[in-house]
Design goal:
The longest helix is centred in the N-terminal third of the chain and has 32 residues. The chain has one domain: MFS general substrate transporter like domains (Growth Hormone, Chain: A), CATH 1.20.1250. The two termini are 33 Å apart. Helix content is 73%, strand content 3%. Strands 1-2 form a two-stranded antiparallel sheet. A two-stranded antiparallel ribbon has the order 3-4. With 480 residues, it is an all-alpha fold. Keywords: Cell membrane, Membrane, Transmembrane, Transmembrane helix. This is Glucose/galactose transporter family protein. It is a multi-pass membrane protein. One of its GO terms (molecular function) is transmembrane transporter activity.
Amino acid sequence: MDNIPQQVSISASTEARSYTKPFITVTFLFFMWGFITVMNDVLIPHLRAVFELSYFKAALVQFAFFGAFFIVSLLYFFISAYKGDPIAKLGYKNGILVGLFLCGLGCFLFYPAASYQIYGFFLSALFILASGVTVLQIAANPYAAILGKPATASSRLNLAQGFNSFGTTLAPVIGALLVYKVFSDGDISVDSLKLPYIIYGLVFLVLALMIKMVHLPSFSSSDKIETGAKALQYRHVVLGMIAIFMYVGGEVSIGSFLINLFAQEQIMGLSEAAGGIFLSYYWGGAMTGRFLGAISLGSLESRSRKYLLMLLTAVASFIVIYFVTSIRNENGQFYFELMALDKLAYFFLLMALNYAAFMLGGSKPARTLTIFSLAVVGLLLTVSFSYGQLAFWAAIGIGLFNSIMWSNIFTLAIKDLGKYTSQASSLLVMMIVGGAIVPPLQGALADAIGIQLSFMLPVLCYLYLIFYGLKGHQIIKPQS
């Protein structure tokens, strides 16, 4: 979920220097905020067990986290509209440092929150952490775009976003091991959250030190900040804002309750630690789909080469997921336990369907969005009304088809806006607030009718995305 700057002027020294090391550093930022965001999916069932929370109250974790995206983005939009871009004035390098500091502070606050065992304290720490991630979203993407030749900016951004997904793939496994095994002594308590989040906080501070020391280019945006929210005159922008709200809300809500779903006896009856491991297949599917989407929607003209490269990428991505999910821990000792490949037959089938969906999409964002949204609706219905491995893998397969939705919606929503592009981008980023609204609603529904049937709520989100892919994205210029 990344906001991409539209026009960037690069200093003369940028083309003359090699920015490989700075790009590696910035790319790790994408990895870390992907990792820390998905840690919420491990955190929710843990806090729910410790504080004996209802599904609704447990989902307030996502409300606090993604609510920060809305509040910080809204403040940023108003300041930019009336006073000028604050990060452009502060400097994008300093903007990244501010974001990293807030992330580190939010992580460190988990220690006193665990010591006092106050749920509201945890939510406050998450809000500060998410505020830092929001600032990183605003500041780090422009750096990723300019660290090299302009002609390859899109390639670099796709690569950075792929590492963001790699972070979301690793987080459930590493987070589950740290929280439920390494630092828990076999008991579920808030104390087991202290050291993992201290480690995360230290990583953010080390990253800040690295960013401070490396040379990063200076640049400025050539777009004028427009006042009066004139981008709202465009129908496809307004409908696109709703689409971003629906997508983020649906994606976050599904991920938030997967571990609880996997624990149901009629599904798989998995423990929370085991569920966290399988959650990596959900986010690993998103990683796979994003890499495939970068190729499918890219500029490679030869279809045979494109499809072969996609196939090889899918195989490589699966190998990464397979070995990551084979990590085990016993009494603090790590070892590998490879899963029998025949147990992954459903996942292979889903990967094949995902590959075929890309071929049907034909490198067209709107068509691909429609096809993928239809697939998710079908998978959600399967989750809600079937049992056992069928429902289990249908839930995991949603990650494969969620993969390209953000980029496709975002691209369609800012098309042909000219000088209003930057303003529309800010408005779209605000709609990440869907991740704060939809999970508590599904939590309340789960309390009322059960966790499995509650997955009917995200169906409404993806039905809207079908509409946006078919009709909502069409540009109707406002009357002057």
